[in-house]
């Protein structure tokens, strides 16, 4: 219980720090554009704006490149990989402290440059890093780290925290963690995910109130076109990610519960059609990167496949009388497979 609360609070503090940095960079850009020397022509303003955006975005890219390149990308496909396959070594590599610094600073600079991007994926990654570091390096929590089951439960809770602290949507965050990052989700882990997500949401609200900043990111949608835009945007995300939780996240984030019926219907249709046509966005990234991931395969997808279709047949036999030179020659010729060929099983 204590680890869940600490995780939620730490993630919320980091989220506030990133948002403060983004706000500071935005104020700096506006200050540069409002200088008297910039009031002459619009072309000079455009050049200054372009130079600022390019410079800050370049700094973010260089930070990721030289501090820790593992921080590049969303992070959700890798977390899905770690949770579904319980890859402890990969977790140590992907959830390191350098990765946290690279991810947080790179995200702040990228968003502060004015580039249109979302932080929910990167923040799922950063929350997972916080959970990993707390479990691994604080003695009171190390027993959780040593248990494979509890460790995976904490990663699930961390994914929920990432969404809850970003969108102030604890319920949607838990559902998102179940749908996106889990191949199997134990019902007994519900309370852990909810405690962590609610702790993150409450902590983030309190920080906003103390600092007298805006608590909600959306203003109420009072007109019908705004409702259509909300439903359309959520349906698009649902079709790409194959998730229904985005509807709940949108309702919690905007407070527009009057659109619950069209939101749920649109997301169900979009997610169903997207699932029938292809794999989700996250699974396509997993396949393209060659990550070890065990997808949920329907029985009809396995029809006609045998063990030979997923086995590596290019192996060498080593007799008992093999000399050391012969063994070295075999090892030089043989390279272990980097990943299973799950892509051959996908039939959209």
Automatic annotation (TrEMBL):
UniProt topology in membrane: Multi-pass membrane protein
GO molecular function list: voltage-gated chloride channel activity
Transmembrane segments: 228-251, 257-282
UniProt organism field: Pythium oligandrum
Keyword line: Membrane, Repeat, Transmembrane, Transmembrane helix
Stored InterPro entries: Cl-channel_core, Cl_channel_volt-gated, ClC
Superkingdom classification of source: Eukaryota
Pfam families from the UniProt entry: Voltage_CLC (PF00654)
Compartments, as annotated in UniProt: Membrane
This protein's name: Chloride channel protein
GO cellular component: membrane
Chief place of localization: membrane
